[in-house]
Amino acid sequence: MERTTIDLWVGIFVALGVAALLGLAMKVGNLTTSNLGATYTVTANFENIGGLKPRAPVKSAGVVVGRVSDIKFDPATFEAVVSLSIDKRDAFPVDTFANIYTAGLLGEQYIGLDAGGDEVKLKNGDRITHTQDAIVLEKMISQFLYSKASESKDDASATPTSSKSTKKAADALGANPLDDLTKPASQ
Amino acid sequence: MIVRSRLRIFRTIGHRFTSRIWRLGAATRLFWLTLISSGESFRRLHLTIREVYFTGVMSLIIIVVSAFFVGMVLALQGYNTLQRYGSADAIGVLVALALVRELGPVITALLFAGRAGTAITAEIGLMKATEQLSAMEMMAVSPIARVIAPRFWAGVIAMPILATLFSMVGILGGYLVAVPLIGVDSGAFWSQMQANVDWRLDIVNGVIKSVVFGVACTMIALFEGYDAPPTAEGVSRATTRTVVTSSLTVLILDFVLTSFMINV
C-alpha cells in the first residue's frame, strides 16, 4: 500500500526532472534553432578575423543562414581560413561578399554574406574570394589619431585666424579628449 | 623530550597519511563491489525506487527553495554590474549560464551531501552498529547488493534530476526579479538567453557534471557509513566526515571537469 504512494512520488519527481530538462532545451538553450538540417561548407580567407569564433552565426540580410564550423590558420598565405556551414536551401552566387561584422559596439562577431549577381551558385567546398576583414578597434583609433595629428599640423602652418576658428568650433562642440593626445604631437 | 615530541608529529602525520590511503583503497573496493552487485537493484527495482524517494523526492523542497533564491540574487547582482556597461538585457544569459554550467550542479551537490548524504551515512552506520548488516550476511543476503547498491543508484539517478530542476527554478527566479521587478524586457531576456546557451556545450555538460557529482557524493556517504566504527560516536563522526569530504570532492571535481569542458 505504501509502496504505491512512493511510486507515485518518484514518478512525479522523474517527470519533473524530464520536464525541467525539456524546458532547458527548448526555452533556455537553442536546440530548436541550431538545427540547420543539411548544410554545405564553403571557405573564406581573411587577413584578420578579429574575435570571430567557431559556431558564430553566418547571416545574410540579418537572417541566420549558417554557422562558422571551423577556423584554421594557413601558414602558406598567413591568412585565416574560415569554414562556413550554410543551409542547403540557401544557395549563394559565387561572387558573394563575406564580411566580418560586430553585433553592437562590443557584441559578438559574425559573418555577413552580401549576395552578388552571378548566375553560378556556390557549391560544397568552394571558396568565397571577396572578403572583408574584421574592423579592429585599435587600428581605427590609431588611424584616427594619426589623421588628427596631421590635420593639426596643417592648422599650425596655416593662417592664425583659421586655426582660431577651428579651435572655437572645437570648443563649441565640447571638449575633445583626443586634443590632449594630439597637441604634444603637433608641437 | 623535545626530539621525541617532534618525532611524534612526524609519526602522526605519517599515520594519518597511510590511513587515508588505506581508506581510499577500501572505498575503491566498495565502489567496485557495488558496481558488480548492482544487478539486483535493477531486477528488484522497487528497492531503488524507495531510495529515490528518500534521497530525491525528500530533497525537492530544499533544492527548489534555494534555487529560487539563488536565481533571484544572481539577477539582482548581475543587473547591478551589467547596467553600468549598458547591457542589462544580457541578464538572462548571465543567470542561465551561471546556473546551467556551474551553480546548478555544484550547489545541488553540496545541498545533496548535507540533506541526503548524511542520512545515508547515519542509516548505514546505525545498521552496522545494530548488526543488521551482519544478520543479512548470516542469512546469505549480500548487504552490498541489498543495501548499498540501491542507495548508490538512487543517488546517481536523483542528482541530475535535482540539478536540472535547480537550474530551471533558478532561471524562473531570475526572470521574476529581472522582468517584473527591475523592468528588463521579457523578450530580450529569453531571446538573448536562447542565442547564447548551447544545448551540447552548456546544458549537457551541466548534466554530465551532476552525474559525476552524484556518483561521488553517494559513494562517499555510503563508504563513510559502511566504514564507520559501530558506536554512537563513530556514526556521528562519520556523518560529519561525509559532509566535509563530499563538499571538498565536489569542488575539486568541479574544477577538474570544467577544465576538461572549457577549451582555453
Shape of chain B: globular
Compute the gyration radius of chain B: what is it?
A: 22 Å
Assembly context of the chains: heterodimer
Poorly predicted ranges of chain A (pLDDT <50, ≥5 residues)? none
State the total count of DSSP E strands of chain A. 8
Give the helix level of chain A as a range of percent.
40-55%
Topology of chain A as a string of helices (H) and strands (E):
HHEEEEEEEEHHH
**Estimated helix fraction of chain B:** over 70%
Number of domain units of chain A: 2
Biggest pleated-sheet summary of chain B: none
Task: Provide the low-confidence segments of chain B as ranges.
Answer: none
Rg of chain A is: 27 Å
Structural class of chain A: alpha/beta
Q: How many domains comprise the coordinates of chain B? A: 1
Q: Got a strand count of chain B?
A: 0
Order of helices and strands of chain B: HHHHHHHHHH
What share of residues are in beta strands of chain A?
A: 25-35%
Question: Which helices and strands occur, and which strands form pairs?
Answer:
The complex is a heterodimer of chains A (187) and B (264).
Chain A: H1 2-28, H2 31-34, E1 39-46, E2 57-60, E3 63-74, E4 79-87, E5 97-102, E6 109-114, E7 127-128, E8 130-132, H3 137-157, H4 160-173, H5 178-186
Helix pairs in contact in A: 3-5
Chain B: H1 2-36, H2 39-43, H3 45-55, H4 60-82, H5 91-129, H6 132-138, H7 143-182, H8 186-196, H9 199-227, H10 232-261
Helix pairs in contact in B: 1-7, 3-7, 4-5, 4-7, 5-7, 5-8, 5-9, 5-10, 7-9, 9-10
Tell me what you see in this structure:
The complex is a heterodimer of chains A (187) and B (264). Chain A has 187 residues and is α/β, with parallel strands linked by helices. Chain A folds into 2 domains: 35-135; 138-186. Chain A has helices spanning 2-28, 31-34, 137-157, 160-173, 178-186; strands at 39-46, 57-60, 63-74, 79-87, 97-102, 109-114, 127-128, 130-132. Chain A has an 8-stranded mixed β-sheet with strand order 7-1-4-3-2-6-5-8, with no helix packed on it. In chain A, a hairpin with a 6-residue loop joins strand 5 (97-102) and strand 6. In chain A, helix 3 crosses helix 5. The longest helix of chain A is centred in the first third of the chain and has 27 residues, at 2-28. The model of chain A has no long low-confidence stretch (mean pLDDT 77). Chain B is an all-alpha fold and 264 residues long. Chain B has one domain. Chain B is built from 10 helices and no strands. In chain B, helix 1 (2-36) packs across helix 7. Chain B is globular. Classes of the chains: A alpha/beta (187), B mainly alpha (264).
